[in-house]
Amino acid sequence: MKWYNDDFIKKIPKTDLHVHLDGSLRIPTLIELAQKQNITLPSYTESGLRELVFKPSYKNLDEYLTGFAYTCAVMRNLEAIERISYELALDSFAEGVRYIEVRFAPQLLIAPDLGFADIVKAADKGLKRARQEINAKLTHEEPEFDYGIIICAMRYCNANFSPFYKQFFTMHQFSAQREIIRLASLEAAKAAVHLRKETDVQVVGFDIAGSEYGNPADHHTESYQYIHEHFLHKTVHAGEAFGPESIFLAITALHADRIGHGLFLFDESMITNPAITDKQRYIEDLVNYIADRRITIEVCLSSNLQTVPAIKHIGEHSLKNMLAHKLSVTFCTDNRLVSSTTVSREITLALDNFSITARQLKDIIVYGFKRSFYYGSYPKKREYVRKVINYYEKLEKEMLKN
Questions:
Q1: What's 109's domain CATH number?
Q2: Per the structure, how many domains does the chain have?
Q3: Residue 280 belongs to what domain range?
Q4: 183, 235, 377, 402: least surrounded by Cβ within 10 Å?
Q5: Is 60 exceeded by the pLDDT of residue 402?
Q6: Is residue 127 situated within a structural domain?
Q7: Cα(386)–Cα(366) distance, rounded to whole angstroms?
Q8: What is the pTM of this model?
Q9: Does 1 reside within a domain?
Q10: 243: alpha, beta or left, given left = phi > 0 and alpha = psi -120 to 50?
């Protein structure tokens, strides 16, 4: 007999520390914005888009990423960005999520009349508006809703990625592609620091996203060093499509506080460096370091199942090994629309397929708040986490009879 139920999972306070803004639109909003902006979609009905684009499962990562061409197309508009951000906050809170860290790459949305700072400010405006509306209705014992924004640079880019990249590549036409990627990443890092220091926009961290294979993290050491020196938090997409070495670089070269996905952390077959002769020892040392440093892994179960065909069943996911090695993990959606998921669904998926006790779930949930890149001061964060724990324990007593 299950010790949990759907109502309990929905009501407990949760985080979503890995959610992409451009992968988390409401389908009716996407359709409406596309029609207003004369953007062509494969279908203008929700059922049609779910059949053709936003599917329950995908053949591979390329098919999974198809939908972003449509979502990004409607987001090159400040009102659209604000609305999408606002709706994401409301949708998250509706399923009990009290804290979200929304990540996106403004470079993909820049247009001739739309600058980097304008885009981030529009997202922040939507999130702030949602926070104000949500918190005005809460009881005194409930944890408030809050958020942070994570700016993403791209591991790989070319001139066709967006109008910004087209112009950037034209300006640096005599530079090697790797050098252009490095410069674009550093520019994003400088923008993130500026927004954090010079505005009230809640930028809390920096990330690199995009194609992992063949685009190692150490191409971005300069941008992450800049972020590091200016006290912003650091997360890195790593181990999503490449092996332990990618995670090693994220930690050693980029000072990662958290790891996005970390799916292939335990996979010896994906180690490619011939100098690593004892692959088992290499992984053991890496895992122990991650555990000891409490580097949190942002686990995205549904997304991994959809983008890695080799995983035939959720039970094959490396979450089992992560839990066995006492790693700090948190459950995330990655893309609420593209993966057709919620945080509650991700938690239920984990509980249904892995041996997670009530105490373990509580620890995972609370650690999501503890390892968040909270915008306020550390004492304020501790106060917030304490309120989360108190509310969680109250729900446990009320809803779990055993």
A1: 3.20.20.140
A2: 1
A3: 6-399
A4: 402
A5: no
A6: yes
A7: 9
A8: 0.97
A9: no
A10: beta
